Amino acid sequence: MEKKKLVLIGNGMAGVRAIEEILKVSKDLFDITIFGSEPHPNYNRILLSKVLQGDTKVKDITLNDWEWYEENNITLFTGETVTKINPEMMAVVSDKGRVVPYDELIIATGSVPFILPLPGADKQGVTAFRDIKDTDIMLEASKNYKKAAVIGGGLLGLEAARGLLNLGMDVSVIHIAPTLMERQLDETAGRLLQKELEKQGMKFLLEAQTQEIYGTDRVEGLKFKDGTQLEADLVVMAVGIKPNIELAKESGIAVNRGIIVNDFLQTDLPHVYSVGECAEHNGIPYGLVAPLYEQAKVLASHICGQEAAPYQGSVLSTQLKVSGVEVFSAGDFMDGEDKKSLKVFDEQDGIYKKIVLKGNKIVGAVLFGDSKEGNRLFSMIKKEADISDTEKITILQPIGEEAGASLVATMSADEIICGCNGVSKGAIVQAIQEKGCTSVDAIKACTSASRSCGGCKPLVADVLQLTLGSEFDASAQKEAICGCTTLSREEIVDGIKEKGLTHIREVMNVLGWESEEGCSKCRPAVNYYLGMVNPTKYEDERESRFVNERMHANIQKDGTYSVVPRMYGGVTNANELRRIADVVEKYEIPLVKVTGGQRIDLFGVKKDDLPKVWQDLDMNSGYAYGKSLRTVKTCVGETFCRFGTQDSMGLGIDLEKKFEGLQTPHKVKMAVSACPRSCAESGFKDIGFIGIDGGWEIYVGGNGGTHVRGGDLLYKVKTDQEAMEITGAYLQYYRETANYLERTSAWIERVGLAHVQSVLDDKNKRTELNARMDEALSVYKDPWKEIIESKKTTKELFETVGIS
Ligand SMILES: Cc1cc2nc3c(=O)[nH]c(=O)nc-3n(C[C@H](O)[C@H](O)[C@H](O)COP(=O)(O)OP(=O)(O)OC[C@H]3O[C@@H](n4cnc5c(N)ncnc54)[C@H](O)[C@@H]3O)c2cc1C
Ligand SMILES: NC(=O)c1ccc[n+]([C@@H]2O[C@H](COP(=O)([O-])OP(=O)(O)OC[C@H]3O[C@@H](n4cnc5c(N)ncnc54)[C@H](O)[C@@H]3O)[C@@H](O)[C@H]2O)c1
Ligand code: SF4
Ligand code: FES
């Protein structure tokens, strides 16, 4: 049988996915020709955010490489735009004059970014964020310019802004609405998001209307309707998209906002389909890949003559791809007359959860700070699950434990793990059991799960863990530490050890970094690994540290700092309190606050005053900013309390004195309580001690922050000396094997409590670990004292660094 001629206009995510689905049905039905205006093979547009953020490289986001087109006998014309569809001739014409006939045609021309028609919008340095070319413009600009303005505080604008921050730019987001991401979040979540992003260094101008982009040839800044202005030498417009319909419209195809399609993705012109962001189904043009991939599947079945269930529209869910921020939104998330909402708001930890109910059905959800329940809620929304028999508040509570593996264990087979590609837990389990998949990459190849935004990778790994048990080696799932290198943490640490590397630049040169300068993700990590491997020889590279660590104080939203002096075990005395009071008065410090870690925080210290404040306090740094030991909280214990069986303050002070200043992959908090009443909350700390008759129980991996986790019992010991010895070995093992920025709670989940116990059970190993710990501790010097002693550092730090 002669093959029919199929032409696809648009070599993007939706169109090529439709071709993939067609090839799955049959490779013999069509002779396929694809036109793409961009000069690249089909790539993952979603990951451009990750390219900008330094997590991956353009060359690694290709979805279908040139060979794929060849292997499937597809004729591909890249860098060539179709300018005309001739329905009578059933042919398309390109800008190069090429005429290609079709029996079936798919229009998948995507969207074009909306560019505000402002005076000056055509100046150099003004760009959209849609494709590789735009991404390159931003990457280049960041090398020569400092000030970036992003217009639009939606998903795209915020992901762009995070990328530009990572590239070392000073970033302001100009947003027209009073709260961020108002199309996905309600006011509370929008404000929480703003707060979190401000902490990351983003600045915001809300309810701001840009009137003009000024400058000579290149942009120099923005003018707003209220007469104010903002300097900027890069402007990114991220104010939404418009379906790209011009070609279809000119060809007489019915269009509205998008190209109008029916439930089988057919336009009103015979043999012409449309799919993706350019298509409008039931009045809706979609702007996320999940619905577009659903459409692609229906289109493929229909065009191949198979019986297909009609496309009936999609419920949407979104997640923001900014590290350190968990935001999830799905369905109809706003309260309304016919809708009631259920909310949980933990203001202290910045966690907000809301579900919206219409009668007995969940129709929408917003999660901020903890989005683990997102998939489950999304499944309920999609299924229009009836919750009349459920205690409503329990819907917002995590099912099972916090651990990922137990969360997927509670999911039913039809629950979706990969939202972008609509892959269920059952499909992944089937791929493992029937197709022998044993890694996340194999699952990706088999099912497409994790092939788009990549956000579901941890859940896919959890399903592997759950299904394969001990056969699944999570640590063998190699993951590069960032987009500047293909190397994992283990490979970098091994490289440092084997090749005797001593500087960040040397690591990057010798281990073949792809970017000369590295990025804000790998530089601090390599800095840590070098110090961990060679504690006595390595000189910390201050420039590679985050601003708080460079300044040894926490920057606040108004540009002032907060300062926390060390108070061992939360115990203080009249002299220290007097010095603190004097400092507060002398430097007119506006806020003095007792912290949850049992010490005193001085807020609102001016940058210039920092060295003098530290000098006058004459106390060690509390490291409230550092990836190091923060606090050792203690209860009063046997000294004063009638229930106390141990000297909790004594052990707490010894621990804090011994381990202060220790550099760790992430912050470490401890607590010591002298009896199981645990007044110091020992069960929720990285390491917690609970006094029992005749000794201590040591709990590890606890966390009281965003991801609440109760600690696991590591050991029972009899004496304070044993407690110190186990702590030293445990912490050193964490230092040596955790990824940079991995809290002990996540680390213990990854490596397993039993494994850590088996290491620490070995007395020789314990001794060796403690010896290496002692070496690391031997170089500790209080950072405040060091700065005060060095006029040069004081000058450098306070005249060149920081936001003033
Ligand atoms: C930075 C960024 C991050 C994103 N993140 C996410 C995310 O996390 N999750 C999510 O679901 N979605 C995300 N999206 C949206 C997602 O990328 C799009 O929904 C998806 O790419 C749309 O696919 P499409 O094929 O319809 O359009 P496109 O991928 O835009 O493809 C259309 C292609 O057609 C070409 N073309 C147009 N006209 C012609 C013509 N006449 N002739 C030849 N070729 C033509 C275009 O050049 C383009 O290459 C993101 C988008 C961006 C820009
Ligand atoms: N993580 C993700 O899922 C993700 C990431 C990036 C992009 N995308 C998709 O890409 C597309 C484009 O994203 P987007 O964020 O540009 O679109 P959007 O429509 O979601 O957001 C645009 C934002 O710009 C604001 N805005 C509009 N006019 C403005 C003006 N004059 N000044 C300041 N702000 C203004 C709007 O209030 C809105 O919040 C969307 O379809 C989006 O879903 C998704
Ligand atoms: S933990 Fe026990 S010993 Fe410590 S203060 Fe509380 S009740 Fe007293
Ligand atoms: S959820 Fe986006 S790739 Fe799986």
How would you characterize this protein structure?
By secondary structure, the chain is of the alpha/beta class. The chain folds into six domains: 4-111 and 243-303, 3-Layer(bba) Sandwich (FAD/NAD(P)-binding domain); 126-239, FAD/NAD(P)-binding domain; 317-397, Enolase-like, domain 1; 416-477, BFD-like [2Fe-2S]-binding domain (Arc Repressor Mutant, subunit A, Orthogonal Bundle); 489-544, no CATH class; 622-781, Sulfite Reductase Hemoprotein, domain 1. It is 33% helix and 21% strand. The chain has 26 helices and 37 strands. Strands 3-2-1-7-19 form a five-stranded parallel beta sheet, with helices on one face. Strand 1, helix 1 (13-25) and strand 2 form a beta-alpha-beta unit. Helix 21 crosses helix 24. The radius of gyration is 29 Å and the shape is globular. The termini are far apart. The relative contact order is 0.06. It binds flavin-adenine dinucleotide, nicotinamide-adenine-dinucleotide, iron/sulfur cluster and FE2/S2 (inorganic) cluster. The site of flavin-adenine dinucleotide has 36 residues, from helix 1, strand 2, helix 2 and helix 8.
CATH fold name of the largest domain: FAD/NAD(P)-binding domain
**Number of DSSP strand runs:** 37
Secondary-structure-derived class:
alpha/beta
Number of domains: 6
Identify the strand order in the major beta sheet: 3-2-1-7-19
What average pLDDT do the residues reach?
A: 90
Q: What's the CATH architecture of the largest domain?
A: 3-Layer(bba) Sandwich
Choose one word for the global shape: globular
Rg estimate, integer Å: 29 Å
CATH superfamily of the largest domain: FAD/NAD(P)-binding domain
**Helix amount:** 25-40%
Bound molecules: flavin-adenine dinucleotide, nicotinamide-adenine-dinucleotide, iron/sulfur cluster, FE2/S2 (inorganic) cluster
Query: Roughly how many Å apart are the termini?
Result: 74 Å
Cofactor: [4Fe-4S] cluster; siroheme; [2Fe-2S] cluster; FAD
Pfam families: Fer2_BFD, NIR_SIR, NIR_SIR_ferr, Pyr_redox_2, Rubredoxin_C
Domain BFD-like [2Fe-2S]-binding: 416-465, 481-530
Domain FAD/NAD(P)-binding: 5-281
